[in-house]
Structure formats: C-alpha cells, structure tokens
Design goal:
alpha/beta, Rossmann fold, seven-stranded parallel sheet, six-stranded mixed sheet, 36% helix, 17% strand
Length: 592
C-alpha cells in the first residue's frame, strides 16, 4: 500500500515520517519512507531553496512531479511526505492520502530556513494567504486525517497504534461525514474503524444524504450505529431506517416529543436561559439516557454541568460546547463514565471533541495535570510531560484560563474536578504566586510557573530561570545584549543576564536608564521577550542588526522569528529553555 502524507508547511510531516519508520521497524515489518523534498535534493545535488531561487517555483513543481512518478514504482509499503505546495489532486486514486494536521495550523507559521514563496509580504502573511485554499484541497482529497499534538517528535504508543492498526476497544462515538465516504476508500475506512472497537458510528440526517447513510448501514454492524435526528424535514425517512434496521437513535428535545418510540438518548443542544434551566428541562423529558450538549460560558457553569452528570453518570452525558473548543480537555478526561462521548479525526461535529490521539491517551482517573494560560492551544506541555504522568496513569491537558477567570475561582473549580499538578504560563504566573505557598526561587522571582496540590494546599516554584540559564549555556558568548519586551519573564531575564540592556516593546524606552536611546547602537544579541500577541508592541529600531536573536517563545508564529528573518540573524527559539524548565518541573512534581 502507498500512502502520501499531505499537510501545511511546518506541520511536521518529515518528523512524522521518521516516527513511522520506527513504528514499523519495532514491529518487524518492512516499510519504505521518503520525503519528496529530500529526494529532489538527492537527485539534483541542489537544495530546494536554491532551485526556488535560481529556477523559480514552476521548475521546482515540475521536479516534484517527476520524482513523485519515480517513487510511485517502488514496491511494498510506502509512505511519501509531500511538500505543502504539491497539489493532492495529482496523487493517483491508488494511493491512500493522509492529511497530517495540528491544531496550530490556522495560526500560521514563520520559517527562517525555507524558501520564500511571496517575498512581497511578511513570512506569516505568506503562509496565511495560501491557507484556506490548501485546506479545501487537502480536505477534498484526504482519505484519512490525523491530528498530531504540538511538540510530538519522538515515537509514541498511541500514534504507533494508528499506523500499525492496533487500536482496540476505543469506545466512544465518531460522527461520519460525507468526506469519510469517498467511493474508492469508504469500505476500508469504515471496516478499519469497526476493528478499533468504536462503540457508536453516528449518522446525522442533517449531514449525510440518504444514499450515504445506506452505505454506512450496509457496512457497519447495526448495533454500532447511532441515528441522530437533526433535520425536521427528514424525520420520516430517518424513522424508517431506525425501525427497519433496529438502530439506536438520539432524539433532540428541540424537535418536541418522540411519540413513536422510546429514544436511546434524549438530547438538548440549545439554551435560552441559564444552564441550570436547560438541565432541568432535559431531566424532565423522562427516564432513560440523557445527553446535554449545551453551550457553556464559564467555569462555574462547567462545574454545574459536571455535578449534574455525577448525580447519575451511567445515564447522563454532559458535553459542554464552546465556539473555540476550549472545553475539549473536559471531554478528553471523560470525568466519570459518560453515557455518550465523542472524539474526532478531523473537525468533527464540534471543536470541543478530543482528537483521536488525545482520546486514546486519556486516563479516566479523577486526578489530572494541566497547563493553564491564555492562549494554550499551541502549548507543548501535554506532550512534553505526557510520559511522566502516563506512567502514573494520570492525564495531562491544556486548559485555557484568563486572568479574569482565575480571579473568579477557575482554579478552585479545576481542583475540585481533580487538578493536582499545573504548569502556569503568562500572564498567570503572578496570580499563581499570590495563590501558592512559595519556595525560595519563586519568592525571588515573584512569580510561580509550577503548582502542585500537596498537603491540602497549593505549593509553587518557578523553573524559568533554570531553563533560561541552561539554554544560554549552549549559545556561547552573546556580546552586547538587549532585551526587547519582558512582561512576566523580565525578572527571570534580569537574573540570567544582569548586564543586558532592557527595553520596553510598547514604548521603546530603556527600563534601566530612560536617557539611553534604543537606536543609539545595535546589539550583537537580542533577547526577544514579546508574547505571541502583537497588539501594542513596537518593532525594534531599524538600525538593530544583531547576529543572534534568542526568542523566549517557541511557537511557530512568534514575531521574533519574523524579526530574525528580516535582519538576517541566526535564530534560537525558546524550545531549549522550555525543555529545560519542563525537566525542572518534573523534579518538583516528583516530590509529590
């Protein structure tokens, strides 16, 4: 079988290819893994960047097609990673296509080591101007979708089970979409997931045609199909399928009473008043299994729904909804045994559904770990700390918490739900400092980035300084150094680099001496300490031409990357700092 890996620039297809090779090697099975860009470089003796710069994009695209055709004749199990610009429409139907995605794809990525496609705009704009078009093309051609986690670079069991087809007893529910039912692949798609042990294949009559629903019913065992009534004008035909095939079905209260049979699930998806009123309305529907898939706005409401579920966990499913998927961690943890819970492979029917790999990794123990902050969707912490907590049968998730929500007792709600360990990001480190019993390091820095619930109270430390100091050791002499920005990391940077000049990214003023002008001279090294949000921040002076930019962010869309690219400086991301401070966090948590 031949599989083409497709996806946006920087999603990690090359890294994934190496892990695929490791999975098959470990299982004793043969596999051939190729990266199309690397194969082009081998055959031409030139880099991709050189081909783009000298011959142009059109010539490079032709080389892509030529080398793809050469690799198409390789026998055996083949995985081929395609560049983001290689049109999936040119992949033959005989190939299986796997769309590799990350949650951070829509945020954009800035590359300091790849050819520019449109130098007339910024590197970030260059990525984003192609995003929507490529997204549509990938979706149209993809036979399967795999959402990989931020920071996943080493072989990992759940991902390996996906490629080796070793999932068993996954449980949960998966909504079937028209894009899952491509004529040349849908039988294999459905049968493979049946082998995984998925409990329910949801057929929504507002998403699928009559023919598409019948296709699924012909393949999947009837006892695994959940018919969900959503389209008012198709109630008769959906009822006919339920009665003909004896299917379980979900009846929404928005459609009124179900007079012809007792629903498997009674559900509610809308609320006009409080969450409590909606839950009371659902509960009044009668006995049986209840599904509350309702918009949830606050942590207080989340707690309310969680307690409602806990009163009768075998018969009640609480599935909170949001516009941005912020409650996916709650569903991932499956706090209690939900009567019904969904995961997703692509976008799913809601952003709050956990991804397939998140679902596979989750432990159903009450206690859990989390990274807290706003934003946190880009965070590598869940993967970086996964092995540590997995060995203890605990899950680690990302939870978006704003400063306002922290002040409104979000952390207390999380603690009640089982939070015991936390990594804290800006701007919450000062809040955590006020909450916790501090060790000397945190007292010195006036900020806490690591919490543990121990002996009936929160205890905290700060590992940022240790992380930065460890990262700086690998970079050698820095020369004259200027810090641009600071925010919650300013105390850390001052401790690590006491001789550095400190400049506000909002005003451009020297924090130590207002009489010193930032544009007076160019530093050899710039510490980029501005957050990912660009609002309110100035650019460094135009005459700054540093040799090195050390970015305290590690996200692919950090403006520090753009600055380094613009001035032609060597770039060092904050990843080394992150890994070092994460190691120190584990040492602190180990004591608990």
């Amino acid at each position: 079988m031949r599989t083409a890996l497709i996806g946006h620039r920087g999603v990690g297809k090359t890294s994934l290819l190496k892990r695929i090779e490791a999975y098959f090697r470990e299982s004793g099975r043969d596999v051939h893994c190729f990266d199309l860009d690397r194969e082009i470089e081998k055959r031409t003796g030139r880099t991709v960047a050189d081909i783009f710069a000298t011959d142009g994009e059109a010539a490079f695209r032709q080389k892509e097609r030529d080398v793809f055709d050469e690799l198409s004749v390789v026998h055996g199990r083949v995985f081929l990673a395609l560049g983001a610009g290689f049109s999936p429409t040119k992949v033959p139907q005989s190939w299986r296509t796997l769309w590799v995605r990350r949650v951070s794809d829509p945020q954009g990525r800035i590359f300091t080591d790849r050819p520019r496609l449109n130098p007339r705009v910024s590197a970030l704009e260059e990525y984003l101007e192609r995003f929507d078009g490529r997204n549509k093309t990938y979706l149209a051609r993809a036979d399967e979708v795999l959402i990989v986690d931020e920071g996943l670079e080493e072989p990992e069991a759940a991902e390996g089970d996906f490629f080796l087809d070793r999932f068993e007893n996954l449980g949960g529910a998966l909504t079937i979409f028209p894009t899952d039912l491509k004529p040349h692949r849908f039988v294999d798609f459905l049968q493979r997931r049946e082998r995984w042990g998925i409990k329910w294949f949801e057929l929504r009559d507002d998403l699928l045609t009559e023919e598409e629903m019948d296709r699924v019913i012909d393949i999947v065992a009837p006892e695994r199909i959940l018919m969900s009534f959503r389209a008012r004008d198709r109630q008769a035909s959906s009822r006919e399928r339920v009665e003909k095939h004896q299917l379980a079905f979900d009846w929404p209260m928005e459609m009124g009473d179900c007079s012809w049979a007792k629903p498997t699930f009674r559900s509610l998806h809308e609320r006009t008043g409080t969450l409590a009123e909606a839950l009371t309305r659902l509960q009044s529907a009668g006995d049986g299994l209840l599904k509350a898939a309702l918009p949830v706005k606050t942590f207080a409401e989340l707690r309310e729904g969680w307690l409602w579920h806990k009163q009768d966990p075998e018969k009640r499913a609480f599935l909170p909804l949001s516009e941005d998927g912020r409650w996916s961690w709650f569903r991932t943890l499956a706090l209690g045994d939900q009567a019904l819970n969904f995961f997703r492979e692509s976008d799913g029917s809601g952003k709050d559904q956990p991804t397939l790999l998140q679902w596979r990794r989750a432990h159903k123990r009450a206690e859990f770990a989390a990274v807290l902050g706003d934003p946190v969707s880009h965070s590598r912490t869940p993967i970086e700390q996964f092995a540590f907590f997995d060995s203890r049968k605990n899950s680690v998730v990302s939870v978006r918490v704003s400063e306002e929500e922290w002040d409104q007792s979000a952390v207390e709600v999380l603690r009640e739900m089982g939070l015991r360990w936390a990594a804290v990001t800006s701007p919450l480190k000062e809040k955590a400092y006020a909450l916790a019993e501090k060790d000397p390091t945190a007292e010195t820095l006036k900020a806490v980035n690591t919490l543990v619930w121990r002996q009936g109270k929160w205890q905290g430390t700060n590992t940022d300084l240790a992380g930065l100091q460890e990262a700086l050791k690998t970079l050698g002499p820095l020369g004259a150094t200027a810090v641009w920005g600071g925010g919650g990391t300013l105390n850390v940077v001052q401790k690590a680099l006491p001789q550095a000049e400190l400049f506000s990214a909002r005003t451009g003023e020297n924090r130590r001496d207002a009489s010193k002008v930032a544009s007076a001279s160019s530093p050899e090294t710039v510490i980029w300490a501005v957050g990912r949000a660009r609002a309110g921040s100035q650019e460094p002076p135009a005459n700054w031409k540093p040799k090195l930019v050390i970015d305290l962010n590690y996200s692919d869309d950090s403006p520090g990357r753009e600055f380094a690219l613009r001035v032609g400086a060597k770039y060092a991301s904050g990843l080394a700092m992150f890994c070092a401070q994460a190691k120190a966090q584990r040492a602190f948590w180990e004591k608990s």
